[in-house]
Amino acid sequence: MNRCMLLGIIVIGIVVSNQLASQDKAGVHGIVVDKEARTVTIDAKMAPRVVLKEKKEPYPLEIIATWPHPKGKKAHETIVTISETLKPSDVHKALESLGLKAGKPIKGIGEPTGPAVNVYFLVPDSTGLERKVTLDRAMVDAKNGKPFPKNIEWRFTGSALVQPDPNNDQKIFGADFSGTLMSIFPVTDETVFQTELTIKQEGIMKLEVNTKNMPKEGTPVKLIIEVKK
């Protein structure tokens, strides 16, 4: 083996090693933290839009990601589902590992606080390669056909604490009880991310998955949360 070839192998090894060092599995299956890109990547699947037997028509979207039905309390209103082995608090910790500090969620009237993040999907195209789909292209208002507003801010709020057992004073991370990761409207504070949209707007908008840009039910996709620069 000549010296040039050996040098090339060494350089490739260093590059790969550096890439692996910047990507941390966070000790949890289905989540990757890239400290260099400052992103958290979560494995997800396109959710069924009708999961409740008594309801033939889908509920409007209020959630971006949650556990599947029946464990996910908002699984009938979500775009994607995440594995039940992945706790929303794992994603919370992943964002903290990138230097972010959670704010405070709300339920009903008020304004959530927390550092802003970018949110988008990576979905497979017809060639099998991944393409980026931002949330304004992932959702549409079924009332008027307009896309989800492009400049809506997502905030790392963290979750409220809940007391699952009324006979036990112990409180837990609420999102780990509901399974809800990202809430579009302040219909719950048992979540890790919320937008600036109000509860009043929840009653005005009727969001649905934009099937022109998003794949069919059951398709594996990636949910990306990116620290805003």
DSSP strand tally: 15
The tally of structural domains comes to 1
Query: From N to C, what is the helix and strand string?
Result: HEEEEEHEEHEEEEHEEHEE
Mean pLDDT across all amino acids: 90
State the secondary-structure class: alpha+beta
Spatial strand arrangement across the major sheet: 3-5-4-12-13-9-6-15
Name the poorly predicted regions.
4-22
| Number of contiguous helices | 5
Largest sheet descriptor: 8 strands, mixed, barrel
Radius of gyration: 19 Å
Summarize the structure in words:
The protein is α+β, with helices and mostly antiparallel strands and about 230 residues long. It has one domain. It contains five helices and 15 strands. It has helices at about 5-20, 90-95, 135-140, 175-180, 200-205, and strands at about 25, 30-35, 40-45, 65, 80, 115-125, 130-135, 140, 155, 160, 170-175, 180-185, 195, 205-210, 220-225. The strands form three sheets. The chain has an eight-stranded mixed β-barrel. Strands 8-14 form a two-stranded antiparallel sheet. Strands 10-11 form a two-stranded antiparallel sheet. β6 and β7 (about 130-135) form a beta hairpin. The radius of gyration is 19 Å and the shape is globular. The protein starts with a helix and ends with a strand.
